[in-house]
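[worker-b] picked up task from shared queue
[worker-b] task type: protein-ligand structure
[worker-b] ligand name resolved to zinc ion; SMILES cross-checked against name lookup, match
[worker-b] sequence length check passed
[worker-b] input payload:
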Amino acid sequence: MRPVIMQVFRHSEQTLKRALISKNPALVSQYEKLDAREQQLMKEAFQPTSDLYGPIILQSQSDWIISHPEAPQDFEQFFSNPYRKIPSPEKHSIYLLAIGSLGNTRVISEEYTKWLKGYCEAFFYGMNVKLLEPISVSATRCSFRVNDHTRNLQIHAGHILKFLKKKKPEDAFCVVGVTMIDLYPRDSWNFVFGQASLTDGVGIFSFARYGSDFYSSHYKGTVKKLHKKSSNDYAIFDNYFIPEITSVLLLRSCKTLSHEIGHIFGLRHCQWLTCLMQGSNHLEEADRRPLNLCPICLRKLQCAIGFNIAERYKALVRWIDDADTPRATPKPSCEDNVHLPKPVEAFQDWKE
Ligand SMILES: [Zn+2]
Ligand SMILES: [Zn+2]
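[worker-b] inference finished, payload out:
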């Protein structure tokens, strides 16, 4: 097949309007109850010249929409899905659990987990976000292996999900494990970025491949093949390589977490506009995805949680501004200036 270069996936104004507002009178009147500023933002979805949202641009044959055809989900389909998990007053907490260390020191690991927590608090504004006490890989009793090709350590995603299900507190809407160890879903698979069970409300996501040198020849996480007797010895995880927490890694992990928790709320892959909920098949495509939800996905999340849209954006901006204050990482990388302030500008345009 010929590679596709810059194919624009554009919907008509009519289609987008219908996907966002729907024709169902109850949902139309629900939409009309949004305040004027919220509606003004939502309407940006159909402005062909919008600075905030644009059509999805496909850049390669291996992009998600081409390689994984799936039915699009408009707001009404989301709203009326009987299997959708809805947070209740009793189950209103998103729990994060670090599996293995996330940084090279305990302090970095703790700081990083707090940044993720803060980001989720702003993104899922109105939900409680709580941290479970971090645990070691050995405490999960999951299987692990050395990948035959990349020679890095990997843990079994399905075993971790079973473990998380048992750990789930009473008030949990979901429990999400995060780790710097790479994951595999089954023996025959090479790797997976993450895996979730929507019905159980559990997910596990690895940021191992988000470090700057995972795909380089000098990647330091390679180990020798495991011998039979060592395949039960978790000591191999002690002092195992952990990538440096750069701002790129932080950005990628925030995107992944919010995208994946979005799935737990019942949001399917977005095929309407450039959006955080677009599917991604590879890291380059995930990087192209914005931090932001398109209005259609934003309305879905708002309907699930019930936040005020402006308040939520303010919380996100606050989190981004806070990210510029001195932190535990010894040398803030120059990439900070490139990656973190970017979304702030987009939000400020909108506020005006
Ligand atoms: Zn996804
Ligand atoms: Zn979307």
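[worker-b] attaching auto-annotations
[worker-b] The beta strands are 7-9, 56-58, 93-99, 128-131, 144-146, 153-156, 172-179, 182-184, 194-197, 202-206.
[worker-b] releasing lock
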